[in-house]
Design goal:
This protein has five helices and eight strands, in the order βββαβαβαββαβα. By secondary structure, it is an alpha/beta fold. An eight-stranded mixed sheet has the order 1-2-4-3-5-6-7-8, with helices on both faces. The radius of gyration is 17 Å and the shape is globular.
């Protein structure tokens, strides 16, 4: 899995990118938890989300926000981090110009940034939001939410109480035809210790219902094949490093 360096708004952004399994594959970007809480692109749930989309054949990117790992810059109260995410998505789309589907996913702070990003990027088709910090940030910016997606909370979460997420989700306005699904996992805390497998199963069950057969789902979605050729020659297919 090749390391990548993305020119960001505050300097370079360190990332890991896995090209899609087939030509013109769908793409997904994964966002990690709060930098000031020790979040980084190799956090357990960030890797789990990454692997879910990788195993479905997506081209997948995860990266470190500014000031984390080898990414340059310093913490910017979420504003700069949102700019980092937009820049990283630009990069991902630039090397996958014919991607038929675009998804974003994140855990905790990463979920918050992902949901802000989808409000600014109408091309995003879906999202996976794990333990979004509804008690720390105002989610009224989702007015209305332009994409369908899933929000998953832990019923024993002491950092972002499940009841708070359950209170906020029904209040989120959505565009016509869009649906936000809320699921919970019994006994799971904020980091889903010992509950990663049930979390992955719920996410995969949701993706099965949203994605067409070529991505492991059963949804009836027609995807036009673009005429342009796909070129991933700049990425090494022998990768699959120790993250797996």
């Amino acid at each position: 899995m090749p390391d990548v360096i993305i020119p960001g708004p505050a300097g370079r952004l360190e990332g890991r990118y896995r090209p899609g399994r087939t030509e013109n594959a769908a793409i997904a970007m994964i966002l990690h938890p709060h930098p000031n809480g020790g979040g980084h692109m190799n956090s357990q749930l960030t890797l789990a989300l990454y692997d879910i989309f990788k195993e479905r054949g997506f081209g997948v990117l995860r990266f470190n926000f500014r000031g984390v790992g080898r990414s340059q810059g310093t913490w910017d109260q979420g504003l700069g981090e949102l700019s980092d995410a937009a820049t990283a998505l630009d990069w991902l789309q630039e090397i996958n110009p014919n991607a038929p589907l675009t998804w974003v996913a994140g855990h905790s702070f990463g979920a918050y940034i992902a949901m802000q990003l989808l409000m600014r990027r109408p091309e995003i088709d879906g999202f996976v939001s794990v333990a979004p910090p509804t008690n720390m940030y105002d989610f009224s910016f989702l007015a209305p939410c332009p994409s369908s997606g899933i929000i998953i909370s832990g019923e024993s979460d002491q950092i972002v109480p499940h009841d708070d997420v359950a209170r906020v989700v029904p209040r989120i306005r959505v565009q016509k035809g869009r649906v936000i699904t809320h699921e919970s996992i019994k006994g799971a805390g904020h980091f889903f210790q010992g509950k990663v497998d049930p979390l992955v199963k719920k996410i995969n069950a949701y993706l099965d219902s949203r994605l067409p057969p070529q991505y492991g789902g059963y949804a009836e979605i027609e995807i036009e094949e673009p005429a342009e050729d796909y070129d991933d020659s700049s990425y090494d297919e022998e990768e699959d490093d120790a993250d797996e």
